[in-house]
Amino acid sequence: MTTVRYSTADLLRVMERLRDPQTGCPWDLEQDFKSIVSSTLEECYELVHAIEEDDYEHVAEELGDVLFQVVFYAQLGKEQNLFSFDSVVNILVEKLIRRHPHVFADGELEGIPVGSRSIDEVGQTWELIKQRERDARNQSGVLADIPLALPALSRAQKVQKRAAQVNFDWADTASVVDKLQEELDELRSAIAIGQVDAVRDEIGDVLFTCVNLARHLDMDAEKSLRDATAKFERRFWEMESTAASQGIDLSTASEARYDQLWRQVKARLDTK
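Above: the chain sequence. Below: its structure as tokens.
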């Protein structure tokens, strides 16, 4: 195993050097809070991809890239006298201790609680504590503080979960399936009429209901769609390879030939 040479302090120093007005990196010096947001999202998705692919050789590397984003923001905050890396860590530790009273008795880092709590009890306490935090920020609404920048499926699932906390929810999975069929029928009607705005609206309702169904089945809608997209990619790549081996030009292939190739690929991959 590689011997660890550098520490968190060294990482913070690297960030200071990169942002040094005289000797720093021109690109890093040009950045601000908003300009690196896209990089932050990209690094997080690369980490997720490495984890989902069980590519643990690169998970540590991707975690480092995500950590660098945190350090970058902390350096920007320090330069503008807004906050520092230490204050970021302090806020995080305080929040974790506050939200886990079942682990940190009396709000103390080394406080040991008496007895144990079930997962359901922990979840209820977690939500109560978070609601108190929202109240303190004058965000008293059930749907308050759900980030707009979340991926659409993830945000829809979080919005639905929050609404369910006050019993605004379908009674069971069967009811959601019925609702999905209703939304599909409405989409079909909108398409038949040819109203573009109505079609767009109904597609949104279908997607929102699909997310609701995933939530009722205790599944993550975002991951389900990523998995489905990855499955499609595997099948399409295999179809391209199969077509090439048979001398078939996909750009001019008929619908029947496409269907034949797709069925062959599905049967072959599904038996592996």
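The CA atoms of residues 2 and 60 lie 12 Å apart.
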